[in-house]
Design a protein that fits this description.
Helix 3 runs parallel beside helix 4, helix 5 packs parallel to helix 6 and helix 9 packs antiparallel against helix 11. The radius of gyration is 23 Å and the shape is elongated. It folds into 2 domains: about 150 residues, Response regulator (Rossmann fold), CATH 3.40.50; about 150 residues, Response regulator (Rossmann fold, 3-Layer(aba) Sandwich). By secondary structure, the protein is of the alpha/beta class. The structure holds alpha-L-arabinofuranose.
Length: about 325
């Protein structure tokens, strides 16, 4: 009886020790796109924090906006024998070969925040929002805001070839269907504040100093914040002369909304890592397969929300 008890406790201790050791020994490679936006910086901060809280050794590689750097990082993660790979893919195409190599090495891959055009058997799951839905929410908000009037929109697109740029455009166009709102100019500004300002300056110049522009739609808040500066410098009032709608819900857009210089934003959570680590944990523990798409929620914020309270909450989040 006594021996049985001793053996049972030893087994418990061994199991606990083993699971603690394996949790601590888990190594995950993370290929991040770069730091083009406030949202991206928050995603990085949260991923590093999540890894730390869970005792995971996170190998972080900043691709500086280049897919070739991401491909190199993935190959280096294979060589290092990591237990899993997280990748936020800068563009949607060109992943097949390297993901096949990762699969052959038996390493599970989780896509963070952007989807790709490859077959879904090359990755375990994708933690992303529905970009088409985000664009359509922005488009529908604008259609309601102009209430049947004609409205010429300029659009700042995200990085060419990236899933959010392709799908937020598509969704916005769906949201405008059947309305008097139309896109008159559309160009990439690479998801950055600096380029958002530059491209908006060129739109304003091309459109009679801005007189012909009724609204700006930006695929992220950072480009909108840059464009707001350009609109002000052109002597117009962003938020009233030119309506501003964008995506991400970063703290700076709430500041602009509180100042009446932006009108609406659609939220993208920067916490993609939490659900990704949960899925990985379950998979490594007992083979539980997550759904191929773990969808994060998207919601619209306008002046009708308690902007100060949301701003304060966001500032605590990792921004
Ligand atoms: O993939 C998500 C997008 O990438 C965010 O909307 C944008 O800010 C970031 O750069």
């Amino acid at each position: 009886m006594f021996l049985k008890k001793v053996l049972a406790s030893a087994a418990v201790i061994a199991t606990v020790a083993l699971s603690t050791t394996s949790a601590l020994a888990l190594t995950v490679g993370f290929s991040q796109i770069g730091s083009e936006s406030g949202w991206r910086a928050a995603e990085t901060t949260i991923t590093l924090q999540q890894a730390k809280d869970r005792g995971i050794d996170l190998k972080f590689a900043d691709a500086q906006q280049k897919q070739e750097n991401q491909i190199k990082a993935l190959r280096s993660f294979i060589a290092q024998g990591v237990d899993a790979i997280f990748v936020a893919p800068v563009v949607a195409t060109g992943w097949d070969s390297v993901l096949k190599e990762v699969k052959e090495a038996g390493i599970p891959v989780i896509l963070l925040d952007r989807t790709i055009d490859s077959s879904d058997d090359l990755y375990l799951t994708a933690v992303t929002s529905d970009f088409i839905y985000e664009g359509s929410v922005a488009g529908k908000w604008l259609v309601d805001a102009v209430d049947g009037k004609e409205c010429s929109v300029v659009e700042l697109q995200g990085t060419t070839g990236s899933a959010p740029a392709i799908e937020r455009k598509e969704g916005f166009e769906q949201g405008l269907a059947g309305s008097n709102v139309s896109i008159i100019r559309s160009q990439t500004a690479d998801f950055t504040r600096t380029k958002g300002k530059e491209v908006m300056e060129s739109f304003l110049k091309a459109e009679g100093g801005g007189k012909n522009i009724c609204a700006l739609y930006a695929h992220n808040d950072d480009m909108a914040v840059g464009a707001i500066q350009a609109i002000k410098e052109a002597g117009l009032k962003p938020g009233s002369d030119i309506l501003v709608v964008s995506i991400d819900a970063v703290p700076d857009i709430f500041k602009a909304m509180m100042a009446g210089e932006a009108n609406a934003t659609v939220e993208l959570t920067p916490n993609m890592a939490g659900p990704a680590f949960d899925a990985l944990d379950a998979f490594l523990k007992d083979g539980t397969l997550p759904p191929k798409w773990i969808q994060s929620e998207s919601r619209l914020y306008t002046k009708d929300d308690d902007l100060q309270a949301i701003y304060d909450q966001k500032k605590d989040l990792g921004y």
